[in-house]
Fold:
Amino acid sequence: MSALRIVMFTTFYPPYSFGGDAIGVQRMARALAARGHDVTVVHTEDSYLLLGGKVQPGGGADGVRRIGLRARNGFVSNLLTQQLGRPVVHAARIRAILEERQPDIIWHNNTSLIGGPGLLPMGEGLKLYEAHEHWLVCPTHVLWRNGRELCDERHCLKCQIAYRRPPQLWRATGMLDRGLDEMDLIIAKSEFSRAKHREFGLTHEMEVLPYFLPDVPKLAEPYAGHPRPYFLFVGRLEKIKGLQDVFPAMDRYPDADLIILGDGDYAGELKRLAAGRQNILFLGRKTPEELDAYYRGALGLIVPSVCYETFGIILIESFRLGTPVIARRLGPFPEIVETAGGGALFETEDELVAAMRGLQQDPGRRAAQSAAAREAFGAIWREDRVLAAYGAALARAAHRKGDAALARRLEAGAFEAG
Structure:
């Protein structure tokens, strides 16, 4: 089977990225390259560097062609894109890349600062937009109003000012709707996210396709270097991740520790809030292998986010290793946890403490949730399962577009493992 030519656009991409969304794009790009496809990822290095990011180590040969865009004046380039909704500085380079690559599929991810809605009509090929965030309906991406509360109705101008971002006047012009009219497939990462897009005014149809992870050939040995039972938090240390709400629960729960793996802008304040609590430990970033061991050794993973996530990749990271999850009853977490049967949900501090106690004091319950988590991961979120669903969705989109040749290639297993 001949390789498909795929060009992916995204604002952030490793090693110029902050976290989960970019890793998800990279994981997809690598999975497609591993299936023999010609994959090019185009992103903007300036956006990451202007936000204070430092180039992360790692990478290496993975079969993916990465093109990082830089402008002579990165600030001006980003400001023009943010304000005008089009790739003002990089338009000629993007057109040249598309002309050279002649893609069968143009795959848009977070296009906010690489080109905005003005990028979407560019190029020929089957086009899809994958909504890793809520940027399509929220200028700040996260539906977290004024930086302090869940958003339940639009106050976008005041909210952007609260975030110290210039208002995007193009959002009132219909430019985004016209750009999305060019898409052959628009993907939401969860049923919750699809409903939230609709609630906030998106009229285009979305298809739900989740994140995925490759299965582990052999489960890691549980981490044995910690002397006490522990619960785990993994992720960027930001206020919207809700970790600060867990600290009072740990005051009431002396029987286990809380190990925190990750870093971020809110780390200093979290460490200040946790000062004096002997059962809360900040251990920073870990390698993937170390992370797997910490997951395996934990009583459970605590996911206390206070904002509307689009999915929650760390839940299936935990499920993959057979570790139950205790997640806030918010956003997409209930549909993931309840579908898997691999954990518990909480709204109050009392419910969080009760869920922790249930996992630690009832080994049978934990074992059952662990087994359910592993089984659900294999059936729903494993790489081969999700890639097959993507191939089928893209084949249907190709038929709708009238590209029967591309549809046949996709139906013949172009997204299946070789």
